[in-house]
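hey
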């Protein structure tokens, strides 16, 4: 009798939560991913095959890394529109260094430095120059893309390296090395954002910059730091991209920019700053990859895939209105 009396309030509490739109807004990415998995598996039994899962995880690795970087920026109420171009510049820097015989390690360093410099420039101009992040990163988007074309003369550089080949094809079971790297980045990002003083300063800067300044937080340094983090992670993404396609391509892939922002929105990170999550954007990235992969398996034309992604992102953005 007592157990029944205790269980009744719990059931009522859960019923109230399920009726609360804010509850679904909090878990939109996870619920969406579960629904997609069930639907696509029912329509095509190969969706959850080991080979396809491994393929999706490898495809999600770069997007996860970029989404972590974008999360730090958006948590400060900013946005990094140059993240895909920074990655392209990093890939070109990698290719140029490798073609000059600098070796794999120095080539990786060149990629991270080149992309990281884009982040530093963004942060300094936004923080010190007090210019809107949208305008600054839009400008560096074009500048980084142009510089990549100039350095490469518009020609891709083929990279043939045994270590890179292992990075793109090896792994632990269904978890490819690129996904393992992305998972490590996500864990470190979570620790940095939620278990360090710097993370507290990031969220405070995005939540109320004036109050953060009054408390002694250097919001300018925080902004420079988050854009630098975004740039460095774009450089890491460039290395994985070169490993995956076997070449340093000078053509920017804007899909990475759009999808990185989409994954963050799906993950429940507030575009107005002050609210962050790392797990959410990771799930958002997996959802986007699963959506595209499932549509491909069903034979849906690639022309419809951006439409589907756009609809999902808009619905997620609408749900953020109800987030607590």
């Amino acid at each position: 009798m007592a157990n029944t009396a205790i269980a009744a309030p719990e059931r009522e509490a859960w019923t109230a939560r399920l009726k609360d739109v804010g509850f679904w807004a909090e878990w939109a990415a996870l619920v969406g991913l579960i629904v997609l998995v069930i639907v696509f598996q029912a329509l095509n039994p190969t969706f959850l095959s080991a080979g396809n899962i491994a393929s999706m995880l490898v495809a999600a690795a770069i997007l996860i890394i970029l989404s972590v970087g974008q999360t730090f920026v958006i948590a400060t109420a900013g946005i990094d529109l140059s993240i895909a171009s920074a990655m392209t510049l990093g890939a070109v820097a990698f290719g140029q260094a490798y073609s000059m015989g600098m070796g794999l390690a120095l080539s990786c360093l060149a990629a991270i430095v080149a992309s990281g410099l884009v982040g530093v420039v963004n942060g300094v101009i936004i923080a010190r120059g007090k210019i809107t992040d949208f305008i600054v990163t839009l400008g560096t988007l074009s500048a980084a893309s142009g510089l990549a074309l100039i350095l490469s003369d518009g020609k891709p550089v083929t990279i043939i390296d045994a270590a890179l080949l292992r990075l793109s094809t090896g792994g632990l079971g269904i978890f490819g090395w690129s996904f393992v790297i992305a998972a490590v980045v996500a864990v470190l990002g979570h620790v940095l954002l939620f278990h360090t003083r710097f993370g507290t300063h990031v969220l405070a800067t995005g939540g109320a910059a004036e109050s953060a300044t009054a408390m002694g937080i250097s919001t300018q340094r925080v902004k420079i730091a988050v854009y630098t983090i975004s740039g460095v992670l774009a450089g890491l993404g460039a290395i994985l991209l070169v490993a995956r396609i076997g070449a340093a391509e000078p053509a920017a892939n804007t899909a990475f920019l759009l999808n990185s922002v989409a994954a963050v929105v799906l993950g429940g990170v507030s575009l107005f700053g002050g609210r962050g999550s790392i797990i959410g954007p990771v799930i958002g990235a997996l959802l986007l990859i699963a959506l595209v992969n499932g549509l491909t398996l069903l034979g849906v034309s690639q022309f419809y895939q951006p439409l589907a992604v756009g609809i999902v992102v808009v619905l997620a953005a609408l749900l953020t209105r109800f987030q607590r």
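The longest strand covers residues 157-158. Residues 75 and 273 are 4 Å apart (CA to CA).
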